[in-house]
Amino acid sequence: MYETYYGLSAKPFQLRPDPHFFFGSKGHKRAMAYLEYGMSQGEGFIVITGEVGAGKTTLVRNLLNKIPLDQIVAAHIVNTSLDPEDTLRMVVSSFGLPYEGASKAELLNRLEQFLRSVDRQGKRALLLIDEAQNLNARTVEELRMLSNFQTDDRSLLQTFLLGQPEFRTTLHSPGMQQLRQRVIASYHLGPMDAQETRAYIEHRLATVGWQGDPAFDEGAHAAIFAYSGGIPRKTNTLMDRVLLMGYLEEMHAFTEADISEVVRDISEEFELPEGAGIDDPAGSAAMAQHELRTMDTRGGERRASVELLDERMMRLEKSIVSVLSILKKIVATPQGAATQHMDNQE
């Protein structure tokens, strides 16, 4: 693949979150500071929101890598499209406790006993909830109730909630007053600016051994930012395709025109076939609504979907490279030799 062609040790722009590539933009540093502040307080809720692909999960994994295991017992939940009782089971399971066949009262008792055991060991329990925008009000209230597990002087469980901006709508709904009173810090993670986006790209390339090959001029970086809007995941998607094109076309420098060509290719791949949705607008609208409902109910599965897409892209790259190799051999075959081969067949 293009990693070998450019002398890189690994793919620098894979879609799955990887704390190894963590880049501390101004927004990400501030969000991490909020999370670390929250940990130092040892109580209450910390809320971090951000757009799709802004890097919230990478923040969490970077935080988990920093957590002192001799002081904090952490559980991370990413599947949040659950009702309150199933969410409770998920919490219990994430802390490594048995949950099958237990009633709600039994689950709460097991969790409380576990939290008190952690406290007796001089440790704290931390619960991290990803994709929090999928939590309904009843489930959020269930999580708030878990914060009632306390000793005389401290809380036994602290919770971090990370989600898309719409989670703030849930948080500010009339029935969430008690939860809002327990939020000790809240931060919205916005996109990177143009300068940070360039630094982000160069950071990820340098992490896998980049020595300036390939090169990107000012126009190329401007085009990358114009497409991605400073969203890390969109930047990764574009840059992966750019490097693949560079490998296939044997390029070592990219201009604005090169980036624009890849952007057009990506845009065309997501265009509807000609005439789609025109003959049956009602059916198309229904399908669109179905897709929106599906997206709403599958937030917890996004992580697996992203990783599956990454794997599919790798398989696609291999297929393209194989076809390219065959085409190069055909083009390199002398015409005379090809003609002689045809005469022999006759």
From TrEMBL:
<protein>
    <submittedName>
        <fullName>AAA family ATPase</fullName>
    </submittedName>
</protein>
<dbReference type="InterPro" id="IPR027417">
    <property type="entry name" value="P-loop_NTPase"/>
</dbReference>
<dbReference type="InterPro" id="IPR049945">
    <property type="entry name" value="AAA_22"/>
</dbReference>
<dbReference type="Pfam" id="PF13401">
    <property type="entry name" value="AAA_22"/>
</dbReference>
<feature type="domain" description="AAA+ ATPase">
    <location>
        <begin position="42"/>
        <end position="205"/>
    </location>
</feature>
<dbReference type="InterPro" id="IPR017466">
    <property type="entry name" value="XrtA-assoc_ATPase-like"/>
</dbReference>
<dbReference type="InterPro" id="IPR003593">
    <property type="entry name" value="AAA+_ATPase"/>
</dbReference>
<dbReference type="InterPro" id="IPR052026">
    <property type="entry name" value="ExeA_AAA_ATPase_DNA-bind"/>
</dbReference>
<dbReference type="GO" id="GO:0016887">
    <property type="term" value="F:ATP hydrolysis activity"/>
</dbReference>
